Amino acid sequence: MVGSQHEALHRIFQDHPAMFARAFRELNVPLDDPTEVVLLPTDLTEIRPLERRVDTLLRFTTPSGRFLLLVEAQGEVDPDKPSAWAYYLAHAHAKYRLPAVLLVVCHDRRTAEWAACPAEFGPSFWASLTMRPLVLGPDNVPVVTDPAVAAADVPLAALSAMTHAKDPCIDAILKSLAAALRGIDEEDAYVFAELTELGLGNSQAAEIWRHLMSLDPSFFRSETSQRLREEGEIKAVVRSILDILDARSIEVPPDAHLRITSCEDQDVLRAWLRRSATVPNAADLFVDDRHA
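-> structure tokens emitted (292 positions)
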């Protein structure tokens, strides 16, 4: 099941596609600043019952032409991934008739080193296909510890925090990012704060980040921020309820799904969350619910 840390690693590129040109230059790959970036459907499934869904698929237009950029977030070594990536590249090229490039974003060196190794497909005497991704990870994403640098490029500072979560200097990276967020639009700051926390996962760095955010309560004290925070908390609980039921292979009928996703009462949602771990069916979530 795809987790929130995985989502954050590629979401930041969806929301801020201009980062790609800077990221590619870090990889010594010449890429002109795009004149247009289009988010394409990520479903690369064929008619056959085989689901293939890339994390992010973008169409770039530059002065030198168009190409597809496929972005995958990878949290650990997975021997099955190279064949899936090769499929994504081949199918995207066949579907859109454009050159395709794969970018893999990792948050630890071991995974990044593994992902960067070209994968060859075919018998030992003849490799008919070679899949060679570009990789962003701790070794090639800049360490942003200067608040001025972070303020000048908040998306890059957030990516720096995510990819260097296990680096000894993560404390300085997070402090510079926290300082930078105070100088941008409040709603944008909230989104970056949430994305950063998700991208840090269960690491010790996530605890440091939550502590930094709690040191200055006025940072997110306005009515707008309070509303956004409450909406984010509600969505997180709703997602947890549905994820737990899915993990337990409990079917959620459309009426139950609507009731869960439309509920805005946090007390009720928390009660449903507790029950979701033990109920035998979705209907029993709502039994003895005095507030529903």
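The radius of gyration is 21 Å.
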